[in-house]
Amino acid sequence: MKSCGAVPTTTTPATTFLSSLLQYSKTKSRTRDSLETSRLLRDFATREFNAFLWFSLIAVTALLLRKVFNLLRLWAQARNIPGPPCTSFYGHSKLISRENLTEVLSVLHKKYGPIVKLWLGPTQLLVSMKDPGLIKEMLLKAEDKLPLTGRAFRLAFGPTSLFVSSFDEVQRRRESLATELSGRLIEKPPAIPTKVVDCIMERLNKFMAEGSLDCNMVSQHMAFTLLGSTLFGDAFLTWSKATVYEELLTMIAKDACFWASYSITPYWKRGFWSYQHLCTKLRLLTQDIVQQCQKNNKLFHQKDGNHYNGITKMGMESASGSLSCFGELNGHLNATEELCGNIMGVMFHGCLTTSGLIGNLLARLATHPQIQEKIFSEIIMARNGSMKQDQQCVDKMRLLLATVYESARLLPAGPLLQRCSLKHDFRLETGVTIPARAVLVVPVQLLQMDDSSWGQDASEFNPYRFLSNAGNGSDLALNTSSTGNAEKHEHLGESFFILNDPNDNAAFLPFGSGARACVGQKFVIQGVATLFASLLEHYEIRLLESESQSDSKQMMNNSVFQHLPSREIVFIRRNS
Ligand code: HEM
């Protein structure tokens, strides 16, 4: 008998069968296990996928519901704002062309009052305001710009921290630019060196020799040189590529809004790539002038200033100072791109707006020679009392400053001020709630020529409306009509005038107001006045002989809703 614990040493068919049975059952259970596992995994994946689908469905439904809810809310809120009912699904946008929007709003305000709504589409509400008090409140509360504005700047100039839609993104850079500009105004008034005027006149004389000199061309060049020399200092006046830069800015200005109006960037259009090519060229030129500025600035420090006269020194200091407020040129790609983007943005906005103001000023002075003569006397009087020969004391030239304000009033940079509140609804004191993302507009042209804010002669050129009589503080414009004002006040010396702050009148909005008001307002008024003080001291501005003066005056006063037509002017040297 074999002991129980004995291990068989030989394999019998029975044991082979048993072991293979065991083996089989092991393999089978392993297969079953793995089948089980894969079934479990499959189940898990299916469940996960279903959960994902459910989650997506719920998210999309919630999103859609939110959209529908917001839309219903927008429609409900809009019901409380007066305005024409919307008869078409597409809103009123088909009726409104760019040219006649101001006129459409003028009619609507007469009918519905100071606040009017207009549907641009089923989801896009435009709200226009015409009451100065309401506007002031709105411009303080609505802190964002329309997304289109930010897109136009980004598309043309790349990353920028100025001129973007969201107030949060722009606030810091706005503040540093404002501090820089106002600091410079306090420390040293913007002395426009004779060099800048000479540089402008040299170019204009070339134009005159070629036979054509129209207001638009002159003003564009003046604005460009004024701004360029302010930002980059003297390096800009001798910069060989300045003319190309000016041309590029003009070309980009023509198309910027068109390409930004596409909600999907039109990469498939050839025209878009040509536009981008222009923008890249502008960027390279900006980098070039920024580098030149820096190089000169370094040289200036190294050479102890001996090689440079006072004006050059000031130009360089100003260039290095003002560039720092646009960003850092520290070799970091994003920072460098942002600096260039900001500079291009300011050159673009500054040149467009300043050239509009200068053009209007030139045309007004050419058609009002008696006011021009009075300003000339004012300049000579102020000059005689001034210690520094190179520095114009424009603060004393009250009629000149009043003329700059009046030109800005009669022809603001754009017909509409635009704002929106991207995230929040806000409530006006009148109880009206303005929904988030509504397009808010102020028809500045209407407002700045409104009889109720400016008197009977609101549409006429009358710089005296910004001056008061020092004797009794009465407003000069209230006592007389504008026509012939210069003659009527001939007996008044400059010490009789007090210059009113134009912003005291809430209907004066060429530079906007509130959270996103123009940072360059004071700077540009002083700069343009200083430039004209230098210019008028040496030159007289006249219309070309062929232009009948009375006809032109008539045209100027009638051009309420249009930009002034380009007109031919000449500069006559005063001592010749
Ligand atoms: C005649 C010349 C100018 C006019 C008529 C003008 C007009 C304006 C207007 C209407 C606005 C929008 C205001 C608002 O929404 O309330 C604005 C904004 C601005 N302007 Fe000017 N501007 C001029 C020149 C300049 C210059 C020379 C600079 C810079 C040196 C400048 C810098 C700015 C800036 C930084 C903003 C604000 C941008 C923002 O917050 O998004 N402007 N300007």
From TrEMBL:
Domain of life of the organism encoding this protein: Eukaryota
Family matches, as Gene3D superfamilies: Cytochrome P450
Sequence positions that bind heme: 518
Pfam families in alphabetical order: p450 (PF00067)
Cofactor: heme
Keywords: Heme, Iron, Membrane, Metal-binding, Monooxygenase, Oxidoreductase, Transmembrane, Transmembrane helix
Residues annotated as transmembrane: 51-69
InterPro entries, per the entry: Cyt_P450, Cyt_P450_CS, Cyt_P450_E_grp-I, Cyt_P450_sf, Cytochrome_P450_monoxygenase
PROSITE patterns in the record: CYTOCHROME_P450
PANTHER family: CYTOCHROME P450, CYTOCHROME P450 12A4, MITOCHONDRIAL-RELATED
Protein family according to the UniProt entry: Belongs to the cytochrome P450 family.
Name of the featured protein: Uncharacterized protein
Species classification: Eukaryota, Viridiplantae, Streptophyta, Embryophyta, Tracheophyta
